[in-house]
Amino acid sequence: MKIDQNFTRIRKIASNTRQWAEELQRTHQIWDSDLACMCGIASYELFKRLKKAGLSPTICFAENSYEGHAFIRCQGYTIDVTATQFGIKDKTVVMANRDAEAYKWFWVPIEKIKTKTGLLKKLAGWPRYQIHPDLTSRTGCEL
After folding, report:
1. What are the boundaries of each domain within the chain?
2. Rounded distance between C-alpha atoms, residue 118 and residue 27, angstroms
3. Does the first or last residue of the chain, that is N or C, have fewer Cβ atoms within 10 Å of its Cβ?
4. Distance of alpha carbon 16 from alpha carbon 18, whole angstroms
5. pLDDT per residue over 14-66, tens digit each?
6. How far apart are CA 24 and CA 117, in angstroms?
7. What is the value of pTM for the model shown?
8. How far is it, in rounded angstroms, from Cα 142 to Cα 113?
9. Alpha carbon distance, N-terminus to C-terminus of the chain
10. Residue 121: C-alpha distances to residues 107, 118, 130 (Å)
11. How far is it, in rounded angstroms, from Cα 62 to Cα 64?
């Protein structure tokens, strides 16, 4: 099976974003080492990096009656850099969208958001420590 160039680019960007999230976790120690409760922060950071690379990412939110999860879909792939919170060994998950739906953390319905304004509306009720610093103030305040 031939891996396309998008997969390789996305995987590299996602791995770098995971490293960024791990460093943020080590520095602030607000979140668990498995990056639980960092999905919103990491997804937004990944979204920004994928956009900067010229790709077309979408931030996705999946929710059930008691919890929710944020991740990215881009170029036919589902990308999750915080899946370790669900016991997944791979620190950076990049898989075809159709394959990702077999995993429990990609519940339906999925809300897809492509703009910063839409994201701010979605995150209105989230705890501040689960929101990317760029979204908490106009200046991108510290955590």
Report:
1. 5-124
2. 29
3. N
4. 5
5. 999 999 999 999 998 888 888 988 988 999 999 999 999 999 999 888 776 66
6. 24
7. 0.79
8. 25
9. 43
10. 20, 5, 14
11. 7
